Amino acid sequence: MGAPKPLIVPWLRDQLDRGLLDGVAWTDATRTRFRVPWKHGLRQDAHDEDFRLFEAWAVASGAYRPNIDQRTPSIWKRNFRSALNRKGLRVVQDHSRDAQDPHKIYEFLGSEDNGTAVNSSANSSGPEELQDATGWSQDTIQEDILDEFLGNLALSPAPVPRETAPPADAHQVAQLFVETEFEVTVFYRGTQVAQERLRAPGGLQVVGRRDQNPGAVTELALPDPGVLSDRKVAGYVQRVRDSLVPGLHLWATPTELRARRRGHCHVYWGRGVLPQEDHPHGVVTKEDGGSCLYHINEFVQDMIPFLNGGGRSPQYTLWFCLGEVWPNRDLPWNKKLVMVKVVPLSLQLLHNIGRDAGASSLDDREVDLRISDSLGSLPLPDLITLLQDFCESMETESPADPRVPASQ
Fold first, then answer.
1. Which of 19, 129, 168, 337 could form a disulfide with 125 if both were Cys (CB 3.0 to 4.6 A apart)?
2. Of 299 and 355, which is predicted with more confidence?
3. Which domain holds residue 80?
4. What is the Cα–Cα distance from 396 to 38, expressed in whole angstroms?
5. Cβ 184 vs Cβ 338: under 8 Å
6. pLDDT confidence of 194, banded at 50, 70, 90?
7. Which residues lie within the region annotated Disordered (predicted)?
């Protein structure tokens, strides 16, 4: 049985009183406010000293054993932030995007909450790390996603680890594309009725009703149209759901996003931030190989000039119109019975990273501006070179099998 895990508040006060960690200090005479360095691990000027507090808490809480466990600064920071996500503490100033001195100012509120110490194994997070998790802001969730994504991609060196991870290569980008998660949003007559974020390694299947045995496919069932107040429209939507059986399949190969309809319901697709007639569009086929909706080379070819400041944002958001011809000048997308929006999140993250690294575009409406942790110091040449290498590798490799994965 390990030693009891220390309580974050008294432990943190002790660290502040000692004053041994660079950048970690009280900011007022009453010792209620303190600053914590908040530098992203992929900044070129990142050093071990920038993560000493997070590392010290990981050691004290038993989550990290020096010289035994792998160094994971992004996880240390996430666990430290989680430990501070409690009553009696709050962030009063967030300067994490400051290019010269990224940091946050916290404040102790009221009396110390001593609570009860809990045991913690070296490889698990205790309840303290998990408390109030459902109250995290979207910024915090985005920060965690980016930390994990960038740590895996390793576009530039992490702060002097014992074993330096190899840089990302074209095959890693292809794997990232294949394993992408999808954010799926369903609209009935322009009204959002569902939204889910789905991991779909075996492919995504949009169905009218959930299958009891979907196999390796990840299913998204269209909601019951009973949520609609217009009974006539609800009846039409129900007919679309019935005709969709056995479903619309969407999957990724190392180079393409493809779709195939398998029921009587005709499916039309388009691409763009919003579905428009002048954007790429077409009909989803019933053939075994399905229809190619987007090629990764197109994303790369749009991203490189975008990163260099001279091109438009990549258009990778997919739209599906079920049961009705689309596009239709006389009937805009928000008047269609059933529209399904699908965002491949791996491409969205690459896009956001590029924007944070310095690219900008007036038509970049789909970028989430709330991304945490400034990536402004991430060198653009690294990302551009990576994408160029990937594009070249796709030219020399044999085409991927376009068919639905065998597991389906």
1. 129
2. 299
3. 1-111
4. 42
5. no
6. very high
7. 111-135
Residue given tokens 């075994």 in the structure block: 288
Whether residue 57 contacts residue 125, with contact meaning beta carbons closer than 8 Å, is answered with: no
Q: Which of 158, 155, 189, 153 is nearest to 172 (CA)?
A: 153
Residue 315 corresponds to which tokens in the numbers above?
């258009």
> Residue range 366-390: average pLDDT?
45
Q: Is 27 helix (H, G, I), strand (E, B) or coil?
A: coil
Question: d(Cα 37, Cα 141) in Å, to the nearest integer?
Answer: 19
263 and 391 part of one domain: yes
DSSP-H helix ranges across 85-205: 127-130, 138-153, 170-178
Tell me, what amino acid is at 405? P
Q: How many domains does the chain have?
A: 2
Same domain, 101 and 175: no
Question: Bigger pLDDT: 10 or 137?
Answer: 10
Determine the Cα–Cα distance for residues 190 and 274; give it in Å rounded to an integer: 12
Q: Does the global pTM surpass 0.85?
A: no
CA distance 403 to 268: 19
* Residue finishing a domain among 64, 91, 111: 111
Which residues, other chains included, contact 156 with Cβ-Cβ below 8 Å and sequence gap of 6+? 42, 44, 167, 378, 379, 382
What is the Cα–Cα distance from 346 to 49, expressed in whole angstroms? 31
Q: What is the CATH number of the domain that holds 34?
A: 1.10.10.10
Q: How far apart are CA 371 and CA 262, in angstroms?
A: 38
| Cβ atoms of residues 173 and 347 within 8 Å | no
Other beta carbons within 10 angstroms of residue 87's beta carbon come to 10
Cα–Cα distance, 158 to 1 (Å, whole number): 33
Q: How far apart are CA 349 and CA 383, in angstroms?
A: 13
Name the average pLDDT for the chain.
73
Q: Which stretches of 108-252 are DSSP H helices?
A: 127-130, 138-153, 170-178, 231-243
Q: How far apart are CA 306 and CA 296, in angstroms?
A: 15
**In terms of Cα–Cα distance, which of 112, 132, 127, 92 is closest to 10?**
112
The answer to whether residue 158 sits within a structural domain is no
One domain for residues 14 and 84: yes
In the predicted structure, residue 35 carries a pLDDT above the cut 90: yes
